[in-house]
Amino acid sequence: MNETSKQQLSLLRQRIPVGLSSGLKLLENAGGDINKAELLFREDILQTLVRKIGLPEDVIQRHLISNNFDIDATVKRIDEERFTLTERILRRYKHKAEAVDQVRFAVLGQNDVYKGSWLDFKQLTAFPKEVYCLLTLNEWLLYADYEGLDVALSFELEVITNQLETVLGLSALADALRQTQELADLLYKKYEITGNHENYIKAARELDESDIYRQCEQMYKEQRDLLIERLYDLVTANVHLFP
Q1: Which of 27, 59, 133, 156 has most Cβ atoms within 10 angstroms of its Cβ?
Q2: Domain edges within the chain
Q3: Can you tell me the distance from the alpha carbon of 139 to that of 117, in angstroms, rounded to the nearest whole number?
Q4: How far apart are CA 9 and CA 91, in angstroms?
Q5: Distance between CA 166 and CA 174 in Å, rounded?
Q6: Is 145 helix (H, G, I), strand (E, B) or coil?
Q7: Is 0.85 topped by the overall pTM?
Q8: Other residues' Cβ atoms within 10 Å of the Cβ of residue 66
Q9: Which residues contact 151 (CB under 8 A, 6 or more apart)?
Q10: How far is residue 90's CA from residue 100's CA, in Å, rounded to a whole number?
Q11: What separation in angstroms does the CA of 91 have from each of 86, 87, 104, 222, 227?
Q12: What digits encode the pLDDT tens for the residues 32-88?
């Protein structure tokens, strides 16, 4: 690269966001004319985004100019104008569990919901039932993953089983969780001695070894993905209720 080409490339890159090799190619196609090279660049970017996004040229041109022809910034701004936050999340995250998590973060981020170690479900009752379902079940799934299913039986299970049954249509799983919780309550009452940690361990062990718990755990593992899929479908069918 001679000195003239270096100067031309430097001047071109001050005008438009272009890499070294792409800048040199533009200058070559423009016969060394910086103004023409800039126009070629702008037209190429415009047509590329028209094909990709499918909006009118004048709309895309407006966003390109306001973002100094930065493609990523332009696409981001157009998406923000066209789609809600939840719609953008659903478009970006193809893995349903991750999308559900991100929608939850979006809801909590845009609302004054206190979160200590775990969400207080009483603070969520003002939300639409679909949003309430997502927040409570997603929180319970996180709790079960962190503490274990046996411990999660004591975390807001009445709310959880009601949501599974009435909103997501997972009645069999709801019934299995209720039955297992009843057994857990009986066992912990059977071994209940205040301050005796060993008896608590005995109760937990007997629960974990019971057929009722093992069948419930197996059903939970088998239907966990279905549960997440139902939550995802709940969001997509009611996207207007989310941020």
Answers
A1: 133
A2: 3-82, 86-241
A3: 11
A4: 37
A5: 10
A6: helix
A7: no
A8: 12
A9: 143, 144
A10: 9
A11: 9, 6, 15, 27, 20
A12: 889 998 899 999 999 999 998 888 899 999 999 989 888 899 888 888 888 999 999
